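Thread: Newbie trying to understand structure tokens

Hi all, I'm a second-year student working on a class project, and my supervisor (Dr. K.) asked me to get a predicted structure for one chain before our next meeting. I've only ever worked with sequences, so writing a 3D structure as a token string is new to me. If someone could post the tokens and maybe explain what I'm looking at, I'd be very grateful. Here's the chain:
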Amino acid sequence: MTLFIFLPTQGILRFALFMIPYLIIGYDILIKAGKGIINLKPFDECFLMALATVGALIVAVVGDGDYVEAIAVMLFYQLGEWFQSYAVGKSRKNISDLMDICPEYANIETDGELVQVDPDEVGVGTVIIVKPGERIPIDGVVVSGHSFIDTSALTGESVPRETSEGDCVVSGCVNGSGLIRLRTTKAFEDSTVSRILELVENASSRRSTSESFITRFARVYTPVVVFSALALALLPPLISMFFLGADPSWRIWIYRALTFLVISCPCALVISVPLSFFAGIGGAGNAGILIKGSNYLELLSKASTVVFDKTGTLTKGVFEVTEVSPSGVTEDELLTLAASAEQYSAHPIAVSLLDACKVRELPKAENVSEIAGAGVKAEINCMTVCAGNARIMEGAAGFSEVKKPGTVVYISRDGIYLGYIVISDTLKENSAAAISALHRSGIKRTVMLTGDNEAAAKAAAEKLGIDEVCSGLLPEDKVRITAGLIEKRGKNEAVVFVGDGINDAPVLAEADIGVAMGAMGSDAAIEASDIVLMNDDPLKISKAIAISRKCMRIVKENIWFSIGIKVLCLVLGALGIANMWVAVFADVGVMVIAVLNAMRNLIVRKK
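---
Reply by user tm_fold:
Sure, no problem. This is what the structure looks like when written as tokens:
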């Protein structure tokens, strides 16, 4: 094009030469505009750009002017489109990385040889082999081997997790160092990787109110500016010619109308707002936070109340012995008696007693009988040992009931009280920090709803700094209380519920925003939720809220900036102050700035 400017050509030859770069640069825009007209849907940015540049060429031909402006407008528009495509590609990368977690095969040992099969063909309970560097295809339990698992694709955590026999592992993670054998616990279609892929594929279908507004706005805005440009091209010359008797100056007003069209192209709004949400979801995904749609990202920015389940959400969901209080015996003796009495039970309390007991070869328990709602009675070394709650201690000499946070197991031997053991669910390392971060972020109210007893619930709430606690609740009670909180919230506020269990599914669905623990959470909870935390870290809740608020701030910045510059340049264009080069900035320049601003959502701080 630069060469053609300096060629000493005139008339039709000059026009033909300049049409070569014009058609090379803008042929696809002209084709899209033509298809829009044929399909009776002409009012889009391609139509505006085609109309403006073709009109500018006609003005140049009639006035024997310069064709550079028309070609430059098309060139810069295409550069802007390329930049926008590049930005969308970068925004999609974090989400497309999640799509790469889908395994292509599973290894099954047959007749001493490894055979690669489709993960869909592997049944529950099958032993599969995962070699170093391979992706785990199906959720399972390690039956042999020791390795370090890279979970970064799911959780965003860079530090590998050590795993050995008995540990649960989820699909989508990469086996780092050693060969491991897994016994699958789920079918492939029900495994973690399949659920994540389904959620990612559906995320773009749930649009925010801001995106819906922009779509409606563009439908009305585009035809309005086209007819406004037509009026600008026709009315002033006609008024000058018929009412003022002056020169109509058709070329000047048509040029202004064409400039008006280029300025009015709504690319910045139509592109940057959806891109902002897409980048926000991608940035959150990179941090191990899976948001199911931009509507949930927008609603999360309004969070004012965060409600928590306790077990498995703020606690590890693993019972441990937290206190041993003997009377007349040593701590080891008390633990040995309790573990011996409970050694044949699979109850979590019995498992925690066995884990805490240092004696590996326990005395044999005979005539073991479980007393419903009370505990266990057994004969150990010809002595009657009872372990359980206060009911089984009736008549035991020296017994006195104690109030402790957690489950209290009392022990007696031959009718003599020997002390108690407290078993509690331990808090997650980041739970207190998570509550503190929420308060610092402006959350007005934190609430904990749990089925635990009052003492355990209050003790946990005090340690964590939670504002309110309700204990001894059934699932329907949690739904009722959450519904009450929703009724009392402000107009532009939202109630968030965070849970992990099957019994949390109803209240996750009831809340404005449901957040599920994805690593150890139940399928029902993950299905009912709107946001999934892939590493079960409650500290990620405040990060998700921060991401959503940053996203909405950028969306508003882009909307006001784009509209403000457009209005200013439209006025200048109508008055003849702004030329086609200003129009290019108002269209392509504003779009590039808005896209760059939207891409800030990809940046998620580690802390």
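A couple of things are worth pointing out once you decode it. Residues 124 and 310 are 30 Å apart (CA to CA). The chain has four domains: 2-96+205-277+550-602, 123-186, 294-314+428-529, 317-426. Feel free to ask follow-ups in this thread.
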